[in-house]
Design a protein that fits this description.
The chain is mainly beta. The protein has one helix spanning 5-18; strands at 25-33, 43-47, 61-66, 69-71, 74-78, 82-87, 95-100, 105-111, 116-120, 125-130, 138-144, 149-151, 157-163, 166-173, 179-181, 184-188, 192-202.
Length: 207
């Protein structure tokens, strides 16, 4: 029996419904900073309502140590992921990477040229790290709880695609520690949620 295109499409749809699969949605909008201040390095992300980690960790990120600099000096990692710190110096220059952050304390020790040291980040948050050999070297790892995140552009716009249907909370990481985002509960379906406004406000004194 010859199967028509319409029949094939119907079969795929019925199969998806039978296995409970749903189309992913898209969440988009812009970040509005109190006082119309311009802030850089804002990352908008989705979190499950109960705060649990959702989705698999993204691929391992690579941070090069070359010319006495970390490159890139700021990476975004999904909770549970790894960062490979690679000494790419052309000369015999040792490096060290360490952090005293409460989110993830670590010290890889001295790393010779060509060495690769991997560090896992099991908790969400911000981790600043440094090189004990070269005081001017510093970097940041931002760990988000889900793979559903986006960097806000210069105008504050963001777009997060392939979001599984369900209830989520929109939050934002703000590099400027005097500011914090206001969480927004949303319900995502296969449709696109547009025009969302993520408010970023100054922290109250004492917090």
């Amino acid at each position: 029996m010859r199967v028509t295109t319409a029949s094939a499409s119907l079969a795929v749809l019925l199969s998806a419904l039978a296995f409970g699969e749903s189309a992913a949605g898209t969440v988009s909008g812009h970040v509005q900073v109190e006082g119309n201040k311009t802030l850089s390095n804002i990352i908008v992300y989705l979190e499950s309502p109960n705060g649990t980690r959702t989705g698999q960790a993204n691929a391992k990120r690579r941070v090069s140590q070359k010319g006495r600099e970390f490159a890139p000096d700021r990476v975004v990692l999904v909770q549970g992921g790894e960062v490979a710190f690679v000494n790419d110096e052309e000369k015999e220059i040792d490096h060290n990477v360490f952090s005293l952050s409460e989110v993830r304390k670590f010290d890889i020790g001295l790393a010779q040229r060509g060495s690769v040291k991997e560090v896992t980040f099991p908790e969400a948050g911000e981790v600043k790290y440094y090189c004990s050999v070269h005081k001017n070297m510093e970097g940041v790892v931002v760990i988000v709880p889900t793979p559903y995140f986006a960097h806000a552009d210069d105008s504050g716009g963001f777009r997060i695609e392939n979001v599984p249907p369900g209830d989520w909370v929109i939050k934002a990481y703000i590099a400027h520690h005097r500011y914090v985002s206001v969480p927004i509960p949303v319900s995502v379906s296969e449709a696109t949620l547009e025009g969302l406004v993520v408010a970023v406000v100054k922290k109250k004194r004492g917090k």
